[in-house]
Amino acid sequence: MSVFLLNLLLAVAWAGLTGTFSLTGLAIGYVVGFLALWVISPLFQDQGGYFMRVYRWIKLLVLFHYELIVSSVQVAWDVLTPRHRARPGIVAVPLAAKGEAEVLLVTNLISLTPGTLSLDVTEDCNTLFVHAMFADDPDQICADIRDGMERWVKEALT
Predict the structure, then answer these.
(1) What's the pTM?
(2) Percent of the chain with pLDDT over 70
(3) Cβ atoms 57, 157 nearer than 8 A
(4) Which of the listed residues 21, 49, 63, 82 has the most CB atoms within 10 Å of its CB?
(5) 36 Cβ contact list (under 8 Å, min separation 6)
(6) Contact assessment for residue 25 and residue 14, using Cβ atoms and an 8 Å cutoff
(7) For the chain, domain boundaries
(8) C-alpha to C-alpha distance for 33 and 116, rounded to whole angstroms
(9) CA angle, 68 as apex, 64 and 71 as ends, to 5°?
């Protein structure tokens, strides 16, 4: 049995023992089960692979929410102040992400971030076209996506 399925089983058992079959009860059971499995992880052949994947997904979620807050404040500031600094443009971003899942997740996270919108991906999935609200420096936008969202997604999906 995989460690993930065992963790889900422990979450359901926790919800059953506490009598709270709700999303909150299952989430608490998942965290308690995760911690219990982490303590006994030397007994598994997995040797921390599952725990590193969970860490990378949590890192992706936290860093995405950080980017979401920063870009929201930047867009709101530009809209509310009398001096508009927005210089919109379309930027061709070369992608290092391979596979449909990685490209799909990168494009969706970019589209969810205020001030940017994924427009299209080439057939070979090597180039992403992004409409950016602040496109003063296209090279900086490419570097931010490559070193930010794309790298975090690649880490989470490997």
Answers:
(1) 0.81
(2) 97
(3) no
(4) 63
(5) 10
(6) yes
(7) 3-47, 50-157
(8) 38
(9) 130
CA 127, CA 150: separation in Å to the nearest integer? 12
| DSSP bridge partners of 30 | none
The answer for residues whose C-beta is within 8 angstroms of residue 44's C-beta and 6 or more apart is: 3, 37
Going by pLDDT thresholds of 50, 70 and 90, the confidence category of residue 40 is confident
The C-alpha atoms of residue 25 and residue 37 are separated, in whole angstroms, by: 18
pLDDT band at 97 (very low <50, low <70, confident <90, very high): confident
| Gap between the Cα atoms of 115 and 75, Å rounded | 6
Q: In what order do the strands lie in the sheet with 116-121?
A: 89-94, 127-132, 116-121
Residue 99 identity: G
Q: Which helix (H) or strand (E) holds 137?
A: none
d(CA 89, CA 107): 17
Alpha helices (H) in 19-150, listed in sequence order: 23-39, 49-80, 100-112, 138-145
Which uninterrupted H or E stretch holds 141? helix 138-145
Place of tokens 């970019």: 110
CB atoms within 10 A of CB 69: 11
Residue type, 108: N
